[in-house]
User: Which sequence fits this backbone?
């Protein structure tokens, strides 16, 4: 740890207090048969908190706020997931949360040096290409999962961090312009556009339309920062052009969407509450039943509905913990997303990277919450860090690690034992 | 739900709320200390013209005539995006971005150069000195 001891300790204490407050609520209000389950849940949450606080000390970071928010939200999700229907410790979700914290550390270690990352750009494209081939060959045209014995993997989730890294750019790279006819173009931007189109087509082919807006949002964040390059200097022509193309693609997409998507777009959930509108109508009823302060942990009825732990998790939390608490959970995730505004990255590459991550998290959260509230068509997208799902939690953790890396990049002093390198002057190339 | 349970729910929500506020305050505090550490590692350097001082506050600083450049030099001899200053492991480097008039460091034409204290950088007709940060009152 480097500096900030006071804020580190106070953050530890308040994260623990927040979890203890929740556990007290479970103890007094919860629906449980055996007290052992509550004790196991409490012990697991507190142990994971303390272990992560200690583990953080071994990393030389300048900022820890994302880490504290991550452990706060992940342990909140452990408590939520253990309480749906009845208080039973959800060890599977607990293990996935631990894996998510480990991937967060990996994300931080891999992404903190923007100079090194920029040199690895070709590997991001290769990685995405390999994953696309895996999807094409192993998941089939109507599936998005690969079964490996007891576990299932969603390969499209693994494309997300690589795609964010591919979308990130630096000022130097944006200056490498080439003239094609009368246009000054950057080859990298064309390659990225092609990659985005390929990913969108693949998502369409394997009917993973829920993830499609997330990829589009990541690309849109990267695209906006590229056309506003090098700083927020918007080119109106480009913006209007991009908006028109996006609107045309969206209209065409809706017109030629598969039948089941058309149904979801036009479904009246109350008229068809036993069919296509079942999950949304039940979710809305649950939110209304929960009120501001909820029915109490384990006292809800939504656990009988399919996908109550991931696709309509917001409604499940609202029912048992209350709308107020569910909104504050959303606020905690929004703070993670908004932290780059408080502690801005110091390089353009890290800046574009954080914009991509924030866009991905925001869109995923919006799709899930608005979908379960019937404000937009229902999708099977998860809320980052809260919903169950191994692939989703692992990748969300990795992306949180990338956010930490953006705010706490590699900062090393020149080595004192080594001589300061001699000036490297390269004669300027003169044009013939 | 009885009043005790309602109070417990409210307490849990309040704890989460306070925790979020504390973490936001911590983020602001870390921003300050992070900035100080960055300045220490990058040796508190700045670029100075004969009457203007340009603080160097991030890893990549774009110098040019364009309004969106980090350091704007309003001179026709300076290209729109003339050069970029980067810092890595405490070492500052200046790189030409394909400018028309080029870069000169201490009178030598370069396309890329590592900078040292008190180097004179010439971009078009403009001369800048790369120096350690000074107190505002010191001229």
Assistant:
């Amino acid at each position: 740890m480097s500096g900030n001891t006071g804020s580190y300790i106070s953050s530890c204490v308040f994260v623990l207090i927040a979890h203890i407050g929740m556990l007290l609520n479970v103890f007094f209000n919860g629906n449980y048969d055996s007290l052992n389950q509550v004790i196991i849940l409490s012990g697991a949450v507190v142990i994971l908190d303390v272990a992560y606080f200690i583990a953080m000390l071994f990393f030389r970071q300048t900022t820890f706020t994302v880490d504290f928010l991550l452990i706060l939200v992940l342990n909140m999700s452990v408590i939520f997931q253990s309480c749906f229907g009845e208080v039973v410790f959800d060890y599977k979700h607990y293990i996935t949360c631990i894996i998510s914290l480990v991937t967060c550390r990996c994300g931080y270690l891999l992404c903190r040096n923007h100079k090194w990352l920029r040199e690895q750009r070709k590997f991001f494209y290769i990685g995405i290409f390999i994953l696309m081939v895996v999807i094409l060959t192993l998941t089939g045209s109507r599936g998005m999962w690969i079964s490996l014995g007891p576990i299932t993997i969603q390969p499209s989730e693994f494309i997300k961090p690589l795609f964010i890294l591919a979308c990130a750019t630096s000022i130097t790279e944006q200056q490498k312009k080439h003239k094609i006819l009368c246009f000054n173009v950057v080859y990298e931007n064309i390659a990225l556009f092609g990659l985005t189109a390929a990913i969108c087509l693949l998502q369409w082919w394997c009917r993973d339309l829920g993830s499609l807006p997330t990829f589009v949002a990541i690309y849109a964040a990267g695209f906006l920062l590229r056309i506003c390059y090098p700083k927020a200097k918007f080119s109106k022509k480009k913006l209007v052009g991009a908006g028109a193309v996006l609107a045309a693609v969206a209209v065409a997409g809706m017109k030629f969407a598969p039948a089941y998507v058309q149904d979801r777009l036009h479904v009246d959930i109350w008229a068809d509450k036993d069919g296509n509108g079942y999950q949304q109508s039940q979710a809305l009823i649950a939110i209304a039943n929960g009120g501001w302060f909820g029915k109490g942990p384990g006292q809800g009825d939504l656990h009988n509905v399919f996908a109550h732990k991931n696709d309509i998790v917001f409604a499940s939390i609202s029912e048992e913990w209350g709308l107020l608490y569910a909104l504050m959970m959303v606020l905690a995730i929004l703070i993670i997303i908004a932290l780059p505004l408080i502690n801005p990255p110091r390089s353009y590459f890290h800046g574009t990277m954080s914009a991509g991550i924030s866009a991905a998290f925001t869109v995923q959260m919006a799709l899930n919450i608005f979908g379960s509230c019937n404000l937009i068509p229902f999708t099977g997208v998860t809320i980052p860090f809260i919903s169950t799902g191994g692939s989703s939690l692992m990748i969300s953790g990795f992306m949180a690690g990338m956010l930490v890396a953006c705010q706490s990049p590699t900062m090393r002093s020149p080595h004192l034992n080594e001589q300061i390198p001699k000036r490297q002057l390269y004669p300027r190339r003169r044009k013939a | 739900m009885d009043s005790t349970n309602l109070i417990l729910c409210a307490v849990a929500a309040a704890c989460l709320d306070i925790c979020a506020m504390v973490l936001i305050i911590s983020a602001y505090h870390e921003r300050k200390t992070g900035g100080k550490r960055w300045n220490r590692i990058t040796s508190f350097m700045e670029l100075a013209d004969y009457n203007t001082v340009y603080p160097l506050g991030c890893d990549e600083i774009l110098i040019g005539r364009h309004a969106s450049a980090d350091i704007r030099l309003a001179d026709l001899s300076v290209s729109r995006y003339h050069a970029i200053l980067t810092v890595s492991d405490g070492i500052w480097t200046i790189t030409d971005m394909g400018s028309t008039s080029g870069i000169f460091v201490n009178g030598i034409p370069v396309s890329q150069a590592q900078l040292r204290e008190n180097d004179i950088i010439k971009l078009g007709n403009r001369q800048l000195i790369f120096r350690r940060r000074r107190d505002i009152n010191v001229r």
About this structure: Chain A touches chain B through 72 residues (CB under 8 Å). The CA atoms of residues 214 and 360 of chain A lie 5 Å apart. The longest strand of chain A covers residues 177-180. The radius of gyration of chain A is 23 Å.
